[in-house]
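Sample intake sheet
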Amino acid sequence: MSTARRRQADAALDTFEAERPRLVGLAYRMLGTVGDAEDVVQDAWLRWSAVEPDDIDNPPAWLTTVTARLALDRLRSARHRREQYVGPWLPEPVVTDPGPDEAVELAESLTLGFLHLLDQLGPVERVVFLLADVMGHPYREVAAVVDRSETACRQIASRARRRLRRVGPVRAPRRRDRQAVAGLLSAVLGGDVDGALAHLAPDVVLTSDGGRDRRAARRPVVGAQRVARFLLNLAKRYVGAGFRAEAVTLNGDPGVLLTYQGRPDVAVAFETEQGRVVAIWMVRNPAKLGRLREPVALA
């Protein structure tokens, strides 16, 4: 390889690596699993390395389009598998930097609650909503991804917003109240029902994902009384049984990772509002816990 070609190849690699966290973040928001997101981005790299960079006027936009199209294809093929999933399907959790309490909208779109909400959308709706509403891409770029007109994409985005409002609140960026979570966990570990209730919103919802092989609530647990009982019964099984609890930040929310003999057994994220826990997301499926110890660069 000539010196000029080597420099060109190095420049192309540098361009791609600078965009990689953003592309992985986009694919993860679309697919909900880190492995699939990284596979999609690797496929995007193969396509990027096969073109002449000088022929690409806007490399970030080109890479966004390619990554989104690849993720859309994978999302369509995964939809049937999720419909056959045993119990609720939750995204694969990732350990993230706690960051400032005043999180921006882009970070808010990484929470398990928001990603779970997005599962109510069809594949094209999800892509259009993420690109246009969450990431702020112009509709002409969004149209190129889904092969629709700009007018059609605006209509799809509007329809997606209406659907999301019907199935659940799209919460504004909020302050993560770690004290509320700490108070709840302290009460649960101490067997204090009243203390737990004091830190739970009346309409709190706990959703757990165990997949086919792990015990979990097959339906969401709704209401402070039921959630408190569920957590206290769960604590009785874990406390003193060789499990270790570690405070972590999961997808931007306060969380706890329980490990057994060094292996993740359950990851729990807590969503708070006005000083109380309003939603709890619990992942026990071992297939979704294997990457929690590995750093994931996404934006």
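Comment: The beta strands are 200-209, 221-222, 243-250, 253-260, 263-273, 276-283. Residues 3-31 form the longest helix (29 residues).
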